[in-house]
Structure formats: structure tokens, C-alpha cells
Amino acid sequence: MIDMHCHIIPKVDDGSKSIDISIEMGRLAKECGYNAIFATSHYIIHDNETENNEYMQKINELNEKLKEENVDLQIYPGNEVFFTNNILELIQEKKICTLANSKYILVELPLFTKVIPLNVYDEFNRLQDAGYVPILAHPERYEFVSEDINTIVKLIEAGVLMQSNIASIGGKYGRHAKKNIKKMLKYNMVHLLGSDSHSTSVYENYNKYIEKIKKVIKDEKIISDILVENPNKVLNNEKIDIIYPNIKK
Ligand SMILES: [Fe+2]
User: Fold this and answer.
1) How far is the CA of 187 from the centre of ligand 1 (A)?
2) Per-residue pLDDT tens over the stretch 6-30
3) Dist. CA 105–CA 102, nearest whole Å
4) Alpha carbon of 10 to ligand 1 centroid (Å)
5) Are 40 and 96 in contact (CB under 8 A)?
């Protein structure tokens, strides 16, 4: 099982504050049943730009450290890219990492806008034309989703995959995100689950969150798809076949 979204690399963003915390996060992730993690450090243009060589070095260092500490967990490169209209160029210039060098790229949007920024569709289109598959990070957290859940349906119909945070179901991001993720799970609008861990806390509460998710999704096959199979497909750069949302517009 692979964690789709995690800020485990120390001191590159607002995630892990030290190598010791990263090791502890790895240990707890392993206990939850993960055997790999996509490191998805924030990349925010003009604000949090990680230098690629240095970033890859940090990933290698963490993998080495985990081995030394007997934590059998593999960290793969990735980024959580804050939306900009040159994501394609950033990939081509190797300034940002797709997930484990696959065609899948994790993108986040501004949290507080009542409507989705207009140029999002254009940029996602450009990425798709170049062979990439955009994955939207934590859709349940966006204000425009609380305003109109059908925006997610439109994005899915445009070929964008949805990665939800497991802790949203426990209210970690407020009541709107909790309500949104419940609805998204119920209507097959979640394709991938991730922890979005910035420290140890989500892993510490992992079982509690998964229990709550299983109360909404009763179908074991769907749970397995969004937790295990689809993240594996990302790692192996395989196509993810999705079930289209069964929400009534
Ligand atoms: Fe994140």
C-alpha cells in the first residue's frame, strides 16, 4: 500500500521538521500498512521552490536512513504543485517531480475561492495533451467544492483524478471538508486516498479514519481500489480506470 500524499521530507516545506520526525512518520506509516510513500513536498512558485538535485538528495538520504533504522519503507519522488499556468514547463524543466516519474502529477488549487479559477481547465488540458494525468489534491477542502460539488463531476469528466485526504472524514479540516468527502465517497468521486501527513498525527489516527470511511463505502473492492490498487497503478505508470460519479446533477 502506498501513501499518495505525504510531506515526509524534512525541512523543505511545512511538513516534517527534522530527520527524526521523518523516521518516526515512516515507522508509523509502516504500522498502518504502507510499504511506500510518494513524497509530495509543496512546490509553490516564488514561495516554496525546491531545487531538484537537492530534493532528490534529500529523498535518497531519507531512504538510506530508513534502511539504517530497519524501517522497510520506500520513498518515491513527487511534489504537490500549487496551481500555476506553467505546470507543463515546470515538469519539462525538471523543476517539479511527477509521482515516481510517472505520467501522474499532483496539483493543489487555492483553498478559498468560491469558483474554480478559469484557467485550471486550460492548464489541465495542456498537461493531458502532453501525456500527463493531473490528480487534484484534497478536493473536499476547496471552497468552490462546498459551493458546488458538481465542479468535481466536471473535473472528473475532463479526466482529472481526485485524491482525498483520509483525515477529512474525521473533521481535521473542518465541517465542510467532512461533509464534502462523505458525499464524494458516497458518489464514487474519490479515486485515490492519501494521508497528507505533515507530522505523525494522521498515521496515529489512521485506523479511526479508515473505519469511518468504511462506514460510507461498504464495497470492499472500491476501498481496495482507492487505497491500494490505484496508488499501485500510479507507481507502475498504468492507466486508472474510473467509475464515473453516480451523483444526480
Ligand atoms: Fe499536502
Assistant:
1) 24
2) 999 999 999 999 999 999 999 999 9
3) 8
4) 14
5) no
**Which of 78, 82, 128 is closest to 99 using CA atoms?**
78
- 160: alpha, beta or left? (left if phi > 0; alpha if psi -120 to 50): beta
Beta bridge mates, 42:
80
Q: Please tell me the pTM assigned to this model.
A: 0.97
Ligand 1 centroid – CA 7 distance (Å): 6
- Distance between Cα 6 and ligand 1 center (Å): 6
Query: How many Å lie between the centroid of ligand 1 and the Cα of residue 41?
Result: 7
**Residues lower than pLDDT 50 in the chain:** none
Q: Strand, helix or coil at 248? A: coil
- How far apart CA 173 and CA 94 sit, in angstroms, is 32
Query: Cα 79 from chain centroid?
Result: 9
Contact 109, 151 (CB under 8 A): no
217 three-state secondary structure: coil
**C-alpha 107 – ligand 1 centre gap (Å):** 9
| Domain boundaries defined on the chain | 2-235
Q: Which CATH superfamily is domain 2-235 in?
A: Metal-dependent hydrolases (3.20.20.140)
In terms of Cα–Cα distance, which of 140, 150, 136 is closest to 180? 140
